[in-house]
């Protein structure tokens, strides 16, 4: 495995700027190229690795330290993940007290045995799941440093996400498996200890060689470079393979412009390959038995359909391949791939595939910092996958695919457990508050946007978001600015309330009375969060009209939406005023009912007082 040559180092340097050539962000970002070679011993579940990294500093800062994640150290008794998992008020049942009970052969570890920067020894200290590295010389702005290391690791018994021998018998779910450099961005270093959730990485190219017993079948991030040598269904259709006779094979993968690399391996994986009309190849890898056979066969129809749906609605998928692999402990997203448990009913199998595939847009390619902005990944993914499921899985799509997210958010808002959505993913006090904020309130960020600026404008803005921010780690402000530009409205108030506070929306129809032959409607804002109001008037003769009350601070109005009652009145509502009065020309006898937001898109946590019906 001694293959590090000067030629190789120059290749790394020359390709080190790849990711930036696609980016027109006004923000700088670092870039990285990994070359990793590992040799797996499947009897001890340990592996030896060598890693060479070309790290380019595009920041204006001089770096004197760098940090590496050593994720597998989390799977040791008394680690931060162990302590947190056992002491949190509502433990994740997948973890609970499993880490503290791992034996010496079952724990995970990752040890960097040697590390050189530009050929010089560094000073390093392993602190739990983070390697703190003091550099022998600084990395200056606009320069590239070469790090070369040797490391060894033991794959933990699968507890959370990665590991060996998961509940469905998959031997290796190899996520978080190499020393990964922490990301440095305009907010500084993100050397988060691994305590359970969410990741963030630097864009770059991964050249990965995995040597493992010949009977193992692999899949994961990246294109297989030696398919003819490996076979196992990766070779071109109809082509003969020429596998080596050796006891071990070396699988060579290359993944361009990704921020992480996952692989999985099992001797019993069945490999299905589906080539889509646009040339994208879908790989399914699973252990075929009575619990998987039928539904994974049916899944072959749905993965390409979901890929088409997301590409059409959220931006063209930029890679040539996606792999759905049985492994892990539920569903977890990685670049160009996902690990999902596979013994599921069809709806659940399709649902988890769709959710994890949707992550390719928000986690994989937009790549928001999931620790700081989990809602921009899990929330937007939930929003997009709910819509995709309604479009591809049911014969008659439900009219309101986000219903579940509303119910979950409302429960959170009334639970007393809610924390601002802006809370760092690791630092929520409960799993409940994290889950409902990131997934449900995050999904509602986009559905509230649809309500405020109009669904069509919001949908066009999502495509614009993709074009402007793919491969650039957008933050809360960036998505809000895209929505502002698309709608022409000022929306910072929405971001500030929805993301940074737990204030809730609650409007009411406080009164309807007749004065001088006209009808006076009094609306009341009971909640602390202001929102524009769509009001529907149903007349006794069957006619419908709408009244629109934009907030003054929006500095504009949304365009009339198709399929809604004609707008007869627009009246600004200053947020400082808790009530608004509307005067209709008709007498009260002409009105049958009045309702706030008949579309039910407004995340009003108390809808009982949103309707007035004539007695
Ligand atoms: Zn997710």
What does this structure look like?
With 615 residues, the protein is of the alpha+beta class. Strand 26 and strand 27 (544-549) form a beta hairpin. The structure holds zinc ion. Residues 333, 355, 359, 378, 381 line the site of zinc ion (ZN).
Characteristics of this structure?
five-stranded mixed beta sheet; 30% strand; disordered N terminus; 12 helices; eight-stranded mixed beta sheet; alpha+beta; 615 residues; binds zinc ion; 31 strands
In short:
The protein has 615 residues and is of the alpha+beta class. It is built from 12 helices and 31 strands.
Topology:
Elements: H1 6-15, H2 18-21, E1 31-41, E2 46-57, E3 63-69, H3 80-87, E4 109-117, E5 120-121, E6 123-127, E7 130-139, E8 143-154, E9 163-164, E10 172-174, E11 180-181, E12 184-185, E13 188-189, E14 204-213, E15 217-220, E16 223-224, H4 227-230, E17 248-258, E18 263-266, E19 269-275, E20 281-287, H5 293-314, E21 321-326, E22 331-334, E23 337-340, H6 346-366, H7 374-392, H8 403-415, H9 431-453, H10 455-469, H11 476-487, H12 492-500, E24 507-515, E25 518-525, E26 533-539, E27 544-549, E28 567-570, E29 579-584, E30 591-596, E31 611-613
Parallel strand pairs: 1-14, 20-21, 21-23, 27-28
Antiparallel strand pairs: 1-2, 2-8, 3-7, 3-11, 4-5, 4-8, 6-7, 9-10, 10-18, 12-13, 14-17, 15-18, 16-17, 19-20, 22-23, 24-25, 25-29, 26-27, 26-30, 30-31
The chain binds zinc ion.
Zinc ion (ZN) binds next to helix 6 and helix 7.
């Amino acid at each position: 495995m001694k293959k590090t040559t000067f030629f190789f180092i120059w290749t790394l340097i020359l390709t080190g700027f790849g990711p930036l050539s696609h980016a027109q962000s006004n923000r700088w970002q670092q870039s990285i190229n990994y070359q990793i070679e590992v040799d797996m011993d499947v009897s001890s579940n340990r592996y030896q690795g060598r890693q060479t990294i070309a790290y380019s500093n595009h920041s204006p800062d001089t770096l004197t330290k760098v940090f590496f994640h050593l994720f597998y150290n989390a799977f040791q008794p008394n680690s931060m993940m162990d302590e947190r998992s056992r002491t949190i008020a509502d433990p994740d049942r997948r973890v609970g007290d499993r880490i503290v009970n791992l034996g010496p052969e079952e724990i995970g570890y990752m040890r960097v045995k040697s590390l050189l920067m530009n050929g010089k020894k560094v000073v390093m200290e392993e602190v739990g799941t983070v390697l703190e590295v003091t550099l022998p010389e600084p990395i200056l702005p606009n320069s590239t440093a070469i790090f070369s290391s040797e490391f060894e690791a033991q794959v933990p018994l699968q507890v959370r996400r990665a590991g060996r021998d998961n509940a469905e018998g998959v031997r290796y779910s190899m996520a978080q498996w190499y020393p990964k450099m922490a990301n440095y961005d305009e907010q500084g270093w993100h050397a988060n200890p691994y305590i359970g959730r969410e990741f963030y990485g630097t864009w770059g190219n991964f050249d990965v060689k995995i040597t493992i017993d010949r009977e193992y079948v692999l899949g994961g991030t990246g294109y297989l470079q030696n398919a003819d040598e490996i076979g196992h269904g990766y070779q071109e259709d109809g082509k003969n393979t020429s596998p080596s006779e050796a006891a071990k094979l070396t699988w060579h993968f290359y993944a361009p412009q990704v921020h992480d690399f996952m692989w999985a391996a099992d001797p019993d994986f069945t490999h299905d390959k589906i080539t889509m009309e646009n040339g994208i190849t879908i790989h399914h890898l699973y252990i075929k038995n009575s619990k998987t056979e039928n539904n994974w066969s049916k899944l072959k129809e749905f993965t390409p359909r979901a890929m088409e749906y997301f590409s059409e609605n959220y931006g063209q998928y930029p890679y040539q391949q996606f792999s759905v692999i049985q492994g892990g402990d539920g569903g977890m997203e990685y670049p160009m791939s996902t690990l999902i448990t596979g013994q599921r009913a069809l709806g659940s199998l399709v649902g988890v595939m769709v959710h994890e595939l949707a992550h390719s847009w928000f986690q994989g390619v937009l790549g928001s910092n999931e620790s700081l902005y989990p809602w921009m990944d899990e929330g937007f993914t939930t929003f997009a996958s709910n819509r995709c499921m309604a479009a591809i899985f049911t014969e008659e799509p439900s009219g309101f695919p986000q219903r579940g997210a509303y119910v979950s958010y409302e429960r959170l808002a009334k639970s007393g457990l809610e924390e601002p959505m802006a809370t760092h993913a690791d630092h929520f006090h409960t799993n409940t508050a994290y889950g409902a904020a990131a997934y449900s309130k995050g999904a509602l960020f986009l559905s509230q946007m649809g309500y405020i600026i109009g669904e069509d404008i919001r949908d066009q803005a999502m495509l614009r978001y993709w074009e402007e921010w793919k491969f650039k780690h957008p933050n809360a402000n960036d998505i809000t600015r895209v929505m502002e530009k698309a709608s022409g409205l000022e929306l910072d108030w929405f971001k500030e309330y929805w993301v940074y506070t737990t204030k809730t929306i609650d409007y009411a129809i406080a009164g309807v009375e007749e004065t001088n032959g006209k009808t006076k409607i009094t609306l009341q804002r009971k909640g602390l969060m202001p929102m524009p109001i769509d009001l529907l008037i149903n007349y006794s003769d069957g006619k419908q009209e709408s009244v629109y009350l934009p907030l003054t601070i929006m500095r504009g109005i949304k365009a009339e939406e198709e399929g809604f009652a004609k707008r007869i009145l627009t009246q600004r509502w200053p947020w400082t005023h808790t009530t608004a009065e509307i005067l209709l020309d008709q007498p009260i006898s002409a009105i049958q009912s009045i309702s706030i937001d008949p579309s039910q898109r407004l995340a009003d946590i108390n809808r009982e007082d949103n309707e007035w019906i004539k007695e």
